[in-house]
Amino acid sequence: MSTSTAAGSMPAKTYLSIGSIKPLGSRLDVPDTGGGCGTTGGEGKASCGSSGGPDDMPSEIWDKVKNHPCYSEEAHHHYARMHVAVAPACNIQCNYCNRKYDCSNESRPGVVSQKLTPEQAVKKVVAVASEIPQMTVLGVAGPGDSLANPKKTFDTFRMLQEQAPDIKLCISTNGLALPDHVDEICKYNVDHVTITINMVDPAVGEKIYPWIFWDHKRVTGYEAAKILHERQMLGLEMLTARGVLTKINSVLIPGINDEHLIEVNREVKKRGAFLHNIMPLISEPEHGTYFGLNGQRGPTAQELKAVQDACAGGANLMRHCRQCRADAVGLLGEDRSEEFTLDKIEEMEVVYDLDRRKAYQDKVETERQAQVAAKAEALAAQSELAGVDPDMKVLVAVATEGHGKVNQHFGHATEFQIFEVSKDEALFVGHRRVDLYCQGGYGEDEQLPSIVNAINDCHAVLVAKIGACPKDELKAAGIEPVDEYAHEFIEKAALSWFAGYRQRISSGDITHNARGDARIRQGAFMGNTEAAA
Ligand code: CLF
Ligand code: SF4
């Protein structure tokens, strides 16, 4: 691990702390020129890229995003993605990355189980696609940088296109080599490219990147950050000009680029980015990263949300990212990679049946339409109530295992989805990882405080079922456990609960109190543990 003197130096420019960011609801004054929704998505929507539907954007864009779980929040409840770890090398060093772990651009810090050759990767993708018909996207996202390994990345895409033409191709890159590969990206019909952009000012960048490998030599400090910045902007502009959808990932590093990310949002929107995904820094000391070893902390849930909210009105925001492993398989909140090791694939009978995949996806679309209709119905039922602030917004946590429904037992949840509910909207705003409460049939009371910490900013938790003991403890912590909407669509359930909550306030049964902050859990999420199985 390289250590950077630059990372400890004072900034040339000082940015405000997260605490001084504009409050919820304030909007950026962004120019009308340039991309984002203006050229590639729904005009002027704060989050149309991530949560919008066909009415928000041109049909050709909707066709590209409607079943991509990262580019459409709605899709992520129904469709899966997979990554193949064919790109081990990297051409830069980030202070939040340890080479032993997955690329932090796109990954939780957890070792990749198996690095793959392109041939092995294609075999794995076809096997997964035959087992999981809702798997619609293949991404190359590390464990290094996809474009620092261009031959392996593009060989994989070329072979896959021949064998499974219906699967969308996606890459994630730090952007340094991007301008050199735009032609190939277009040649292989890669419709979705993620660029990790943490700064648009090299003075900020030199605190994040100790070095880059450029023009056959190592470049350090301000000069390195300047080159990286210029290449990222050029690559983004080239992709926009060629009609490729781009998503910008930014790692929020408190005290280094927090308020600066608002400027990043503004600049990438100007250059046509479709989505901006602001992710929390993960920096546990045991990961061995420069930041982790030097006490750089990640943001709290409120700090992350404050920056995301301050960017509303700029480039469309993605808030449902799970910071996946470079070999992740499944829906965004789950990881089924263990089911598809090379050994297991050898024993599987693989039948790639395009018609079966299509039939399954048609069923998913029907379910999705029902979800949209249920939300519209619940919104129509909201009304003004005497004595209740019409602008009231609260957060609710939801236990779900997919299909857009409240369909998971409290004790089986390894994450809760967080929705911000008002009388006008039920908006997905994030997720919180938690330790399993139910350990092999009995409740683990020691886990409860950490679960409460993770959803401490929520007024209610919606679950399919919950035992008496956690119910009492949640109530004592001021979080209302709700199981009466089991197996209903999430937004409808959240809005129905909220209508009742407002009714209780209006009738004087309860008083509305603000909630506290919540902790974003650091570290690797390993999917289903033995206890869950
Ligand atoms: Fe993978 Fe990334 Fe493509 Fe998605 S992930 S390469 S765009 S298919 Fe998605 Fe995972 Fe977040 Fe990435 S949830 S880390 S944004
Ligand atoms: Fe690590 Fe990815 Fe940064 Fe490379 S680009 S140093 S692999 S986080």
Mean pLDDT, rounded to whole units? 83
Return Rg in Å: 22 Å
| Strand order, sheet with most strands | 10-9-8-5-4-3-1-11
Number of strand elements: 18
Features:
disordered C terminus, single chain, binds FE(8)-S(7) cluster, alpha/beta, eight-stranded mixed beta sheet, 533 residues, binds iron/sulfur cluster, 18 strands
List the helices and strands and how they pair.
Blueprint: H1 37-40, H2 48-51, H3 59-65, E1 80-83, E2 92-93, H4 118-131, E3 135-140, H5 150-163, E4 168-173, H6 182-187, E5 192-196, H7 202-205, E6 211-214, E7 217-220, H8 221-241, E8 245-252, H9 260-270, E9 275-280, H10 290-293, H11 301-311, E10 317-318, E11 329-330, H12 342-347, H13 354-380, E12 394-398, E13 415-422, E14 425-433, E15 438-439, E16 442-443, H14 448-454, E17 460-462, H15 468-476, E18 480-482, H16 490-506
Parallel strand pairs: 1-3, 3-4, 4-5, 5-8, 8-9, 9-10, 12-17, 17-18
Antiparallel strand pairs: 1-11, 2-6, 6-7, 12-13, 13-14, 15-16
The structure holds FE(8)-S(7) cluster and iron/sulfur cluster.
Iron/sulfur cluster is lined by residues 90, 92-94, 97, 103-105, 142, 144-145, 174.
